[in-house]
Amino acid sequence: MTLPEAKDLSHLLSAEAASRKSSPLKSAFKYYGLPGMTFLGGGLPLSDYFPFDKISADIPTAPFKNGIGAQVTKEDKTVVEVFKKRELNDPAIKDIELSRSLQYGYTEGAVELISFLKEHTEMVHKPKYSDWNLISSVGNTQSWDATLRTFCTRGDNILVEEYSFSSALETVHAQGINTIPVCMDAEGIIPSSLAKQLDEWVGFNKPKLLYTICTGQNPTGSSLTAARRREIYEIACKHDLIVVEDEPYYFLQMEAYTTDLEKRNQRHVHSHEEFLKAMVPSYLSLDTEGRVIRLDSFSKVLAPGLRFGWIVGQEQLLERYIRLHEVSIQCPSGVTQSLTNGLLQRWGQSGYLDWLIGLRSEYTHKRDVAIDAVSKYFPTEVTEFVPPVAGMFFTTAFDASKHPKFEEFGKDPLKVENSIYERGLEEGCLMIPGSWFKVEGESNPPQPKVPTTTNPNLIFFRGTYAAVPLDALEHGLEKFGKAVKLEFGL
Amino acid sequence: MTLPEAKDLSHLLSAEAASRKSSPLKSAFKYYGLPGMTFLGGGLPLSDYFPFDKISADIPTAPFKNGIGAQVTKEDKTVVEVFKKRELNDPAIKDIELSRSLQYGYTEGAVELISFLKEHTEMVHKPKYSDWNLISSVGNTQSWDATLRTFCTRGDNILVEEYSFSSALETVHAQGINTIPVCMDAEGIIPSSLAKQLDEWVGFNKPKLLYTICTGQNPTGSSLTAARRREIYEIACKHDLIVVEDEPYYFLQMEAYTTDLEKRNQRHVHSHEEFLKAMVPSYLSLDTEGRVIRLDSFSKVLAPGLRFGWIVGQEQLLERYIRLHEVSIQCPSGVTQSLTNGLLQRWGQSGYLDWLIGLRSEYTHKRDVAIDAVSKYFPTEVTEFVPPVAGMFFTTAFDASKHPKFEEFGKDPLKVENSIYERGLEEGCLMIPGSWFKVEGESNPPQPKVPTTTNPNLIFFRGTYAAVPLDALEHGLEKFGKAVKLEFGL
């Protein structure tokens, strides 16, 4: 089957991105390495002067039979060794020798690592158009910054979930770009609400980009269903939107929550196929026009400090990112690339899936402990929650109007929220007030109000089960539950 | 002696930089790690799931008695080992354990590495005001991008050397910022010319920033004398300019070129003090007001692929960079930080100076070979050159009016330049035409012309002695010399 090509979306580029030129020096580089040609063109240091002769790493051996968090022992240890000189590396393994990874390099990322990730992407997302590509970044935060520079100009409006990651919003606001919130419910963006907003848009400066953390959303913990993704993608096509899916938590999808302990023990994926099938379809997998920009990262699945992410989208748009990266970050760390590629080449695609399955199992268990504790310690009379199916976050919501001081607080739900936050601190547990993630922003001229069915007195708190040992997690939630009871006089 | 504080220069910030806010989540982080507090605030993965248990590197042992390019052998090898768990690391060495470097981290850079670089900066530059600081970046290209975002807005004018690094210019132009060239001679920027330009500036939008590669300039190979630096710094103070010194080549300063072989063998620095004294004073070292932003990097002294640079300047301005980095690059790679810090801690300040002295010696030798070959193979009748005292580049200049086809080419020096470039390629040696680095740009309204004493028919080519083995370098220059002779009919 031949796949169609992406649509030409170059009209959506920012002035900055459209104006980027290739370096004139590039035209000289075609002579580099030609037989008989002495190339005195580039200011590259000789690799003889790189003070790293070999780097190595101890990593666990796939398929991680004792779990991914188990201590690495002599028996199940794999050693990644990467030498400076190409000829010293194992010819059977596609390593990135240090003389290359530590030199000025390919802005797109080293070919071995990028090939691995492309194969992985093909396996997981099966893109539906032919000219998609994948380039490296130094993590999703930077990918998002680069995305804004590529599509937006000061004064533009973009669409974001009505609660969103505050750091991602700050990236937007400092660039003088305005955020227009899109209504959400417990499952994420409400498609009909988004459609209405765009259909009834007043004035020029209509948003051309939707930013969404659709799986394990930060801060709400919600995950968008496949059906909603399809609806939203259709809306994006109709209104010529770029869809940016920021998906660091995609592989932290879990088994459904159940209180039935017997069922709980039976839940798990049995094979790579089952695992891949259990994944919610990404926007990338639905994209036929090349209007999805997918931001992916090792931060939540291997380690944040690697500072390695990747961007998937149509080639023609990614070329503009490469021009930007050439004159900003250049490329991710070569040490990161040699070691991470070394790890992936030794695990193989299959071992990497084993690792991701291991993560799924760990996060499922953590989520279970958190939700069990919320059920046990929080007062059911006032607490609402939806067990998350992906990500690091869960939320607990309360009807502020049931708070004894609601009248005294002038019926301001935010005052109730703050009172609970403070009481939580007194009892010794910190969860983040939902209002801290609330997206503010109105276009000029203002748009018609989109009706919402959400209870305006509903407040919520974001907690994480990712960062704390399980006993501390349970104890913390006991304390927060007590704070809530005290607040509501229960 | 108590040093004065930097001047408040916050009026020079860009709209983007001035508007950056701290994340509201920061206010919660003060509760992190408090006794009795369960912190469910942050989405950090547990370090148990980082698949790197230990990383290590083989590095040469200071003081590098066989030279810095020598093959590392068993006898003079040092092994850097950094474990995930803090308690497994050697307590006598200030390593950055992987559980920290691979976690979300300090945007400023890991404290051990930053402290080392601050101590080094104090030793080399001895800043003259008290509240200077140093933060990490992912290399000078990104530091320069961040600097532009911090001080400039679309439509601004900035001052740059009339020939400059094309990639740095592209960073400027894509942001919609205009470059105003400053006249240079063989020693770099001509201070009187700069003064005249600013004194006679017409209209608003006067430049507020000077970008300069003052040591081993790219592409001219020139190095600015201490006297000129002082003059230019005074001009910057008078006209309220930020001075950005982009100094990747600062430690590629060399011994003076001499054809006297006996003298040549006697030249070298004998001690750390002599070495430090031989360095040309940086703008940072002259700065009393905190208006210098210094961009430094490991790219030319250790390896480009580390993607680690640092920015030195007054604390109040660097705080704005940190806010930018928090929502873009976050921080340099933790693998890079753990290994590079591991190397530096094992070498110590003294060993690092030994390494830099080794580099000085290597580059002096390479430069000598290049200049010897130019003297030997290029026709003296038409060739002008100044042996560089720093950096990776040398230039050879020619009077285009002496070219036999000058009249036929319509007296266009660029046609002569291109003809020589093409002939070089035919003979098998590529050097980059100087005009490729020429800065274009005029302000609106246009400024009065600054008179220049430079011969308008002088064209030049940039070569490098950094990237090629010495025999190939000599052979290449023989070929290019032949091309020049053929072109000029000599």
Automatic annotation (TrEMBL), chains A, B:
Signal peptide stretch: none
GO biological process terms, semicolon-separated: aromatic amino acid family catabolic process; lysine biosynthetic process via aminoadipic acid; tyrosine biosynthetic process
Reactions accelerated catalytically: an aromatic L-alpha-amino acid + 2-oxoglutarate = an aromatic oxo-acid + L-glutamate
Entry-linked SUPFAM superfamilies: PLP-dependent transferases (SSF53383)
EC id: 2.6.1.57
Domain Aminotransferase class I/classII large: residue ranges: 99-442
GO cellular component terms, A-Z: cytoplasm
Keywords of the record: Aminotransferase, Cytoplasm, Pyridoxal phosphate, Transferase
Pfam families listed in its UniProt record: Aminotran_1_2
Enzyme class: transferase
Family: Belongs to the class-I pyridoxal-phosphate-dependent aminotransferase family.
Compartments in which it is found: Cytoplasm
Any one GO MF annotation of this record: aromatic-amino-acid transaminase activity
Name listed for the protein in its UniProt record: aromatic-amino-acid transaminase
Cofactor needs: pyridoxal 5'-phosphate
Highest taxon, organism lineage: Eukaryota
